[in-house]
Amino acid sequence: MKGRWRYTRLPSQVEDALSAEEGEEEEGETAPAPAPVSAPAPEDPVGPQLAEASQVLGASEIKQLSLHLPPRVTGHPWSLAFCTSRDGFSLRSLYRQMEGHSGPVLLVLRDQDGQMFGAFSSSAIRLSKGFYGTGETFLFSFSPQLKVFKWTGSNSFFVKGDLDSLMMGSSSGQFGLWLDGDLYHGGSHPCATFNNEVLARQEQFCIKELEAWVLS
C-alpha cells in the first residue's frame, strides 16, 4: 500500500511543478513566459504613417489593416499614388500613376452603398499579359468588422491588369475582385485563390471612391 501511495503522489508533484505553484519551481518557469506576451505589444499602438489623409479609411480601419500586412512593409509610410477624387475614374490613369513604383500596393475603395473593401497586392498594379504577384496578396472587406481573405494555395491567380479591367483572384471564370476600365463598375465573387466571400453587399457594385497606396 505504501508503494501505491508513493506512486500516486508523483503526478501531483509533477502537476504542481508544471503549474508553478511551488516556490522553487516558480523561479524557473517565469523567466521565458513574458516573451510571447510582450512581443506584439510594441506594434499595438503604432499605426502606419500616411503622407495624406485617406478619403476611404478612418484611423481605426487603417490600424486594423496594418496588423495583417506582411512584416516587410511594417513601418513603411503609406504614399497615395492614386485616388479617383484627384486623378479621375480611369484604370489607365491608375496604371500611369503606378509607373516607377515597384513596392506593394494597398487598394481600398468605397462603393455607392458605403461598403469599404479592397486588396493588398505584393507588387505594384500594372498592365500584364497574365497573372502576377505572390502569396502575400489578400482581399479584405469591412462589413462592418474587418474580414481578411488570404491566399489558400489553391492557385496563383493573384493580379492581372488589362486595359479594360483589373482582376484579383480567380476560379471558374469568376474573380474575387474585378474593376472595369472606367473604375466605376466592379464585381466580386467567391474564388478559390482566396476562398473569399463577396466583398460588397452585392456581386455587382458601383465605385464611389478608390485609392491606391504604395507601401514602400
From TrEMBL:
Pfam families: TLD (PF07534)
GO CC annotation: nucleus
Compositionally biased spans, kind Acidic residues: 18-29
Region (Disordered): 1-48
Residue ranges the record marks as coiled coil: none
Protein name (database record): TLD domain-containing protein 2 isoform X1
Residue ranges of every copy of the TLDc domain listed in the record: 55-216
Naturally occurring in which organism (per UniProt): Odobenus rosmarus divergens
